[in-house]
Amino acid sequence: MVMNSGIGLNTLGNYDACLALPEAHHCVLTVAPPVPRAPRNSSWLAATPLAMAGACVPEACGEAEIRNDAVGFLEHLSPEIAKKLGLDVAALLKDSQVDVTCSENRESFGADVTACTMGALVVILCFLVGLGTYLEVHKLKAIRGEASSSSEAEQSGLLVQVLVAFSAVKNTRDLVAHERMPTNFLNGMRYLSILWVILGHVAVFTKPGWSNISKVDEVLGNYSMVFLFGAFFAVDTFFFMSGFLQASVLPRHLLKLRRKPLHGLPLLYLLRYLRMTPPLLFLIFASRLTRYVGDGPVFHHYQRSGEWLHCEHYWWTTLLYINNFVPHDRLEMCWAWSWYLSCDFQFFLVVGPLLLAVAYGFVGPVVVILLLVEVVPIILGASSELSALNRSYFLPWNRCSPYIWGVLAALLLQRLTAASTASVGVRDVVASDDDEHRGEADLFFEEPRLPRYVSLLLRVARARWSRWLSYATAGVLMWTGMTLSWVKYKGEWAALFPGATTHPWATGYDRLYGAYYVICWGVALGLLVIPWALGHGGFVKEVLGHAAFTPLSRLTFGIYLVHPLLIEYTTWQSRSYPTWTTAGVAVAFLGQTVLATMASLCLYLLVEKPAANLIALCVPMKKS
């Protein structure tokens, strides 16, 4: 048994070999981490137990006995050794932060009514997908004349339409459908951005911990970490694309709904809510099933994670998209990573009336309002010490900057596109070869006079040198933003761990970073997107707009929802503490990417697309 036990903290022993021994069980001693030394309420990593030890002991040894022995050992631990381990023994004993859990004490599936209910729902959804697929295939055979009677294909009552909404054939066909559009490059941007998010989460979801945690300064000091800490900007990319697409589509769509109350804004809000919520609602409760299909020496930490308890109390805040406000303590949020959805939905609610004003030609006042609002996150970034490690990271007024730049980029693009179309001479289409008719063409098809600033912008946009200047400026803004994020966060994160020598930035530098952070990425994306949408971009744009990215971009929403849960689920089944290496992070990233993509495909076929089809049956609207 001794051979299968850990030899100290952060060693778990041989879990499987221990359980194979007769009359033996594996127990894990968990010592809660010390209070983080980093400032700015950087307590979110404190929920990760960084000090654990495994022991293979006789079954007669209970959890209480092992804990008492561990407490006795800690009481006699010399202050010098405790300091090296980063342990405040007095605080640990006072707050009872020493826990022991043995292998047989796991959560029971039958005792979780929610998990049982969701298990039954998953079976029902799979049955509906199978039935809908059968009906879809049967209808296709009837249409092609392969069935005995084609009349069956015409019997498409409401019940049949509801069932066909679950058809895997129909929904897969919709998933891979590709249409050539000027903004197809956003598909590639969307999928690559979610991959960047996964990379960042793989690196920072440090559970159960690292075996080489003592070298945290060396690990975080490697310049390759710039890509990990730069992943915070991937979220800003999504905000930018959301604002850009909303401003591109909503104005003309609202004009089509002018006979509806308030130009259909309440209806659009409702449809947006119904489109986003079913997958989120399903996953919040269905994810509880994962608590009972895992194993490992420290898997009990996943089973007893506060995430499940928080969702029992605050699931409604996530579904109302207010969980970035309620609860106040971010450690109690249900599905904390869904804060992005809350911000995005709140931005959509606010920008709707502004885009209605744009539809009626009030572009100038709307632009002025947006520019004035843009000042708010800049001031807050320079004053509130914006950090991913504190609550301000979730608040909409701190995150609205890239969304605003996306809206502004779309409005500018629409103006340039309209001006470009108006400036194209049509006289060649209607004029004949003789001078008399050519003069008539000049009379009736005189090139419109454009505002001077629009003409100037149009000429600049068409110039080759201006495009390259735009790309270069965007590159500088992006790279400096990523590098500054790396410099900032390597200090803040290293300070969370005992023995680190790196310290957070001084307040002045931190505030300068906050002001720069909120504007650099949105401006850079605008400098890239506008030339690409005008038809430039070359090879890069073609690659990003390739048809292969179309289905992947449609799976992005599901990937965003499931990947943090999958990362935690897999890492908590570790048999030992992983060692932080660049190669290890790369392998984990590739594995999590494949796993999240496949899980998103299942979510798309089971819930997301069927729900969208059912909504379309209830609220038939023309595709915009």
- How many DSSP H or I helices? 28
- The count of strands amounts to 3
What structural class do you assign from the helix and strand content?
A: mainly alpha
Oligomer: single chain
Overall mean pLDDT? 82
Strand content: under 5%
- Spatial extent as radius of gyration: 29 Å
> What gap, in angstroms, lies between the N and C termini?
67 Å
Helical residue percent band: 55-70%
Gross morphology: globular
**Poorly predicted runs of 5 or more residues:** 35-49, 147-155, 424-448
Biggest sheet: strand arrangement: 2-1-3
Largest sheet: 3 strands, antiparallel
State the domain count.
3
Task: Please give a structural write-up.
This protein is mainly α. It folds into three domains: 2-105, no CATH class; 111-176, no CATH class; 185-422 and 451-618, no CATH class. The protein is 63% helix and 3% strand. It has helices spanning 15-20, 63-75, 79-85, 89-94, 113-143, 151-154, 158-164, 168-176, 185-204, 216-221, 226-229, 232-256, 265-286, 299-303, 306-319, 339-359, 363-383, 396-399, 401-422, 427-430, 435-444, 452-462, 464-494, 507-533, 538-544, 549-554, 556-571, 582-618, and strands spanning 24-31, 51-58, 98-102. It is globular and about 85 Å long. Mean pLDDT is 82; it is low at 35-49, 147-155 and 424-448.
